[in-house]
Amino acid sequence: MPTKKFRSTSNKITAVTVWFFAFGTIAVNLVATRVSIAVMLVLLVIAAIAWLLFWRPSVAVDEVGIDVQNPLRKTRIDFANVQAVDGTFGLVLLHNDRRFTVWAVTGRDSAIAREIFHNWQRQMPN
């Protein structure tokens, strides 16, 4: 099975919307006669936070395990070490008695959570 990479569609839409308004406001500010550097810096910080929280999170699934990229941490989890998978309100993996919430899979992405759950079940010994 080739590696499949997922990002939440709603997160991508949110990130692009924030970037559109932030960079649009920066463009208007640059055209205006009075340029406010402080406002532009705040908007750039907001755009960076939107990237960190909404665009960066991803999950990649291959036949051996899952690569989880959350905003501040990247984790590799092998299916053999996953104790439980919960896809009720997003995706939560229980690995070595630690819970990993996958930011890239939100409640609306239940098909992705189901696919990861089925891949995990196939790896489980009978």
What does this entry look like structurally?
With 126 residues, this protein is of the alpha+beta class. The protein folds into two domains: 4-55; 58-123, PH-domain like, CATH 2.30.29. 44% of the residues lie in helices and 25% in strands. It is built from three helices and seven strands, in the order βααββββββα. The protein has helices spanning 9-31, 37-55, 110-123, and strands at 4-6, 58-61, 65-69, 74-78, 82-86, 91-95, 98-102. The strands form two sheets. A four-stranded antiparallel β-sheet has the order 1-2-3-4, with helices on one face. It has a three-stranded antiparallel β-sheet with strand order 5-6-7, covered by helices on one side. Strand 3 and strand 4 form a beta hairpin. Helix 1 (9-31) packs antiparallel against helix 2. The longest helix has 23 residues, at 9-31. The chain is elongated, with a radius of gyration of 19 Å. The model has no long low-confidence stretch (mean pLDDT 84).
List keywords for this structure.
PH-domain like; 2 domains; 126 residues; elongated; 3-stranded antiparallel sheet; alpha+beta; 4-stranded antiparallel sheet
Task: Compute the number of helices.
Answer: 3
Structural class: alpha+beta
Order of helices and strands: EHHEEEEEEH
The biggest beta sheet is recorded as:
4 strands, antiparallel
Low-confidence stretches: none
**How are the strands of the biggest sheet laid out side by side?**
1-2-3-4
Produce the secondary structure layout.
Blueprint: E1 4-6, H1 9-31, H2 37-55, E2 58-61, E3 65-69, E4 74-78, E5 82-86, E6 91-95, E7 98-102, H3 110-123
Antiparallel strand pairs: 1-2, 2-3, 3-4, 5-6, 6-7
Helix pairs in contact: 1-2
